[in-house]
Design goal:
The structure is a homodimer. By secondary structure, chain A is of the alpha/beta class. Chain A has one domain (about 10-175, about 220-305, about 370-450): TIM Barrel, CATH 3.20.20. Chain A contains 15 helices and 15 strands. Chain A has helices at about 40-50, 75-80, 95-100, 115-130, 145-150, 160-180, 235-245, 255-270, 295-305, 310-320, 340-350, 360-365, 380-395, 410-425, 435-440; strands at about 10-15, 55-60, 105-110, 135-140, 185-190, 195, 205, 210-215, 225-230, 245-250, 280-290, 330-335, 360, 375-380, 400. The first copy, chain A, has an 8-stranded parallel β-barrel, surrounded by 7 helices. In chain A, strands 5-6 form a two-stranded antiparallel ribbon. The first copy, chain A, has a two-stranded antiparallel ribbon with strand order 7-8. In chain A, helix 4 packs across helix 6 (about 160-180). The first copy, chain A, starts with 9 loop residues before the first strand and ends in a 17-residue tail after the last helix. The relative contact order of chain A is 0.17. Chains A and B meet through helix 2, helix 3, helix 4, helix 5 and strand 6 of A and helix 2, helix 3, helix 4, helix 5 and strand 6 of B.
Chain lengths: ~450, ~450
C-alpha cells in the first residue's frame, strides 16, 4: 500500500455487556464505568461519544457460557468479573440506535444455540428498526459451559461446528434473500393489499442439521442480510470468513502475526469467486493517548496499577484451555515444557521479541490491558503514525478498539486521535449516508452478486 | 365491589409489531400509523404518549408462525397484513425504556421455541436495562406454522404444552431466584472482588423435557423474575395462570363471559396457596371516544368504513382453526351446523343477545374492530361509566386497550378518558415509584413467598 493518499481508517469500538472485557482489574479504577454495563444510560452515552467521533460502529462481543478453566471452576471468572456476567447484546441496540443516526452495530450472536428462523427474525427486526445499520458477528460458540446450559454435554467439535454453520448460513440466506421478493410488500391503501402472497415464498429446507418449512416472518429489511462479520482465526474459520464475511475481526499482538492472516483470507476469497479486497479487516487494538507522550505514558502507568494478575490469567486460561493457576508466576516459561496451546499463545505474544524468555508475571504486565491485541501509548501524532503503520504493513482496513477504562479510552481517542487522522486525510470528516453495507463497501445496500447468499435470490 | 372509592383502574396498551393487530383493514385509514410498525420513532412516540397518560404499561403481543387457516394458506393473512409480518418485540424495549421513566413492558415470548437459559438471560438483561420494568407474557405457541419454522411437524399437543411449560418455569425460576444469592455481586474496588463465587450456584436440572447444568449468566435484576403475565383461557391455561401469573390477560365480548373466568382463576389461586386478590386481571377492550357522544359515533362510523371483511375472517379462522372462506357471508349461521370451535366463538360473540341469529357479515360488522373484545363508543363520561361498570361487574382490575387506529386511539384516550377517570378518583394522578411489580402489587420488588418461584430461594 503506497498510495499518496492514505486509505480511510475504519473504526469500531469493541466492547461487551460485562464488567471486565479485556482489561481485568481496571473496573477498580475510579474513573472507569465498566460496572455500569447494566445501565441503559451508559450505553446511550457511549453511542453518542462514538457517533461524535464518526466511528463506523460499535462491535458488541458475546458468548454463551462462562470461562471455567482457571482453577477448574467458574470461581475465578466470577471473582474478577472476567467476562461474566454477560448480558444479551441484541437487546441494547434499539436504544443506542434511537440516540444516533449513523453509527453501525456489529452484534455477536451464537448460531449453535439459536434456531435459524428466530435468529433471522431478530436481525431483520433490528435492521428495520435501525434503518439498515446492523451487522451480525457470526460465532459458533466454544464454551462447554454454554453447551451445558443448553442441555448438551459439550459443544460440537470445532470442525463440525463449521459444517453446522455452513448449513445454518444456507438457511438464513434463504430466509433473508429468497422468501420475500422485492416489492412483495405493497401497503397499498387503494387496493387494500398489504403484501402480495405470490411474491412471498415458503422455504423448504431438510438438511443434515436443520429442517424448516416456513416463510420468513418479517419482510426484507434495508440490507436483507445483515452485514456479515466473522472472527475465526483457525484454518476452518478462515475459510468460512473467506466465503461469507464482509468484515473480518482479527486479533494478534504484532504486525507479523496479523499480516499473513489478512493476506491468506483475502487470497482464499478468490476461491469462492469473491474479491478479497471487498472484505474489511479490523484488528484488535487498544490506544492510550494524551496531549503529549508524557501524559499518555503517565496515564498508561496509572492504568497498569489496576491490572489484576489473576483476572488476566483467567482470560488466558479460557483462551488456551490451559489452567494457568498451575503455573508459578515467576518461573521462566519454556515453550517445550508447556501445553502446545500455551506455547502458541506465548509465541504469538512474543513474536516481536523472539529470543526472549518470559515469566507469567511478565506476560501479565505486557498483556494485562486490551487482551491479545497490542497497546499503543503516545501523543496524537505518535498514535496516528502507529495506526497508519499498521494499515500499511498488515493490509488491515481499521481497528476494533478495546478500552483500558471506559468510556475514557473512547473519549480520549475522539478528542486526540480523530482530529489527527482527519488532518492526514486518513479518516472521514462526515458519515456517508446509507446502510452499514453502503458505508463499508461503497456499493449497494444488498449483498453483491459475488456473495454466496446471492444464489438464493429468485 | 361496593367501595365508596372506586378501585384504581389499570391500563396497558395492547399492540404488536405487525401492520394489523386486531382491526383488519384500518391500516388504510389516512390517519393510521400501523404501517410504521417497523420504525423506531413510531414506538418511542407511542411510549411517550402512554407515559403522558400514566398507562401502567405497553403489552406487546407476539406469536411465532403465520395464520394459514383461512383458505388453507398464508395468502389471505399476507394480503391483509393480518398479524403477519410480525417482528420480535423484545428488541423494541430498550428504546422505549430510554424515552420513558415509569412505563412498564409486558413482553410476549414463546417458551416452546426458546431455550430456558437464553430466555432467562434476555429477560434479566432487559430488567436491568429498564430498572425493573419488564413483565413476561408466558405463551406456549399454538401455530403449527411456527413449529414448522423450528423443524417440527406440529406444535406439541395443547395439554402437553402446559406440562412442558411447568418444567420450563421450574428451570427459569431456579435461574432467576436461586443461582445468584442476594449480595453475590460486591463490585468492591478495595478488595477487587467483583462477585463472590460461593454465593453463585450452578443449577442442575435433568427433567423430562429439559437438561441444564449451569449458573444463570446474569446476576439478579431488580425484580429477579420478571412480572409474570399469562393469557390462557382453557381449563389447563387457567390452572397455569392460577399457579404462576401475577397479571392475567382475558378477552371476551361481554361481562357475562369475563366475570366467571376471573372468579374461577382467583378461586383456583387459593389451591396453590396464593391469594386470588394478588392477581391483576386485564380484559381486552377498545375505546372510541370523542368530546361528545356524537363525535365518538361519527368517528366509529368513519373507522367502520375501513374494516376489511376478509381480513377479519382471516383472524377468525386462525382463532378457531376453522376455514371461514368456506362459509357464505350472508347465510344465517346455525350453531348446530358448524364446527364446535365456530359455534363456541359465535356463542361468545352473541352472549349479550342470545336469541339472535347471525350472518358472517353481521359478525364482521360487530367484531371488525378490536378483535374478540368489546368496543365502547361514547363521550368521556359514557366511557368512564362503562369502564367502571366492567370493573364492578366482572372484578377485573383494568384493561388491555386495543386500538382502532394508532396512535390516535391512545391519544384520544389520554386526552378524553384519563382526566375523567382521575376526576372520579379511579385512576392515578402520578406513578408510584419502583419496579413494575411494586407498582402493580404495592408490595416488594420480588415475588412474594406465596408464589411457587419462592421455593427455589435458598
Amino acid at each position: 500500500m503506497n498510495n499518496a493518499m492514505p486509505r480511510e481508517i475504519r473504526l469500531n469500538a469493541f466492547t461487551s455487556q460485562t464488567p471486565v472485557h479485556l482489561s481485568p482489574g481496571l473496573w477498580r479504577h475510579p474513573r472507569d464505568q465498566s460496572r455500569n454495563f447494566k445501565s441503559l444510560r451508559y450505553w446511550t452515552e457511549l453511542a453518542q461519544i462514538l457517533e461524535e467521533g464518526l466511528f463506523d460502529g460499535v462491535f458488541l462481543a458475546d458468548g454463551i457460557g462462562i470461562n471455567d478453566v482457571h482453577g477448574g471452576s467458574p470461581d475465578s471468572a466470577l471473582r474478577h468479573g472476567a467476562q461474566v456476567p454477560k448480558h444479551d447484546p441484541l437487546l441494547l441496540v434499539s436504544a443506542m440506535a434511537h440516540v444516533t443516526q449513523q453509527l453501525g452495530f456489529g452484534i455477536t450472536a451464537t448460531l449453535s444455540f439459536e434456531p435459524p428462523s428466530l435468529l433471522a427474525r431478530r436481525f431483520t427486526t433490528l435492521d428495520h428498526l435501525t434503518k439498515g445499520r446492523v451487522g451480525w458477528n457470526i460465532v459458533t460458540g466454544y464454551y462447554d459451559s454454554g453447551a451445558k446450559a443448553l442441555g448438551r454435554a459439550t459443544v460440537t467439535a470445532h470442525d463440525e461446528r463449521y459444517e453446522v454453520a455452513e448449513e445454518y448460513m444456507d438457511l438464513v440466506y434463504a430466509l433473508w434473500e429468497q422468501s420475500w421478493e422485492e416489492g412483495a410488500v405493497l401497503g397499498d391503501r387503494a387496493s387494500g393489499i398489504y403484501a402480495q402472497p405470490e411474491k412471498v415464498h415458503t422455504i423448504h429446507h431438510h438438511g443434515k442439521y436443520f429442517d424448516l418449512d416456513s416463510i420468513h416472518f418479517t419482510p426484507p429489511s434495508p440490507q436483507r442480510t445483515p452485514l456479515l462479520y466473522q472472527a475465526g482465526a483457525s484454518r476452518r474459520g478462515r475459510a468460512f470468513a473467506a466465503k461469507h464475511a464482509e468484515a473480518v475481526f482479527v486479533a494478534g499482538p504484532s504486525k507479523r502475526v496479523i499480516a499473513p492472516i489478512v493476506a491468506d483470507v483475502r487470497a482464499q476469497a478468490e476461491q469462492f469467486g469473491r474479491n478479497g479486497r471487498d472484505m474489511l479487516f479490523f484488528t484488535l487494538m487498544t490506544v492510550i493517548v494524551g496531549e503529549t507522550e508524557a501524559a499518555a505514558r503517565a496515564k498508561h502507568e496509572e492504568y497498569q496499577r489496576y491490572v489484576s494478575p489473576e483476572g488476566v490469567l483467567t482470560l488466558f486460561s479460557g483462551w488456551t484451555g490451559t489452567d494457568f493457576s498451575r503455573y508459578p508466576l515467576d518461573a521462566p516459561i519454556v515453550p517445550a515444557e508447556v501445553d502446545s496451546a500455551v506455547a502458541s499463545m506465548i509465541e504469538s505474544f512474543t513474536v516481536a521479541d523472539p529470543g526472549r524468555v518470559w515469566t507469567l508475571r511478565e506476560l501479565i504486565a505486557h498483556n494485562g490491558i486490551g487482551g491479545r491485541g497490542p497497546v499503543i501509548v503516545g501523543s496524537p501524532e505518535q498514535v496516528a503514525d502507529e495506526l497508519l503503520g499498521w494499515i500499511a504493513d498488515t493490509d488491515v482496513d481499521g481497528f476494533n478498539l478495546s478500552y483500558a477504562i471506559t468510556p475514557e479510552s473512547y473519549r480520549d481517542f475522539v478528542e486526540f486521535v480523530v482530529p489527527e487522522l482527519q488532518k492526514r486525510g486518513a479518516y472521514k470528516t462526515a458519515y456517508v449516508r446509507g446502510t452499514l453495507r453502503e458505508k463499508f463497501t461503497g456499493g449497494g445496500r444488498l449483498l453483491p452478486p459475488s456473495h454466496p447468499a446471492a444464489r438464493f435470490r429468485s
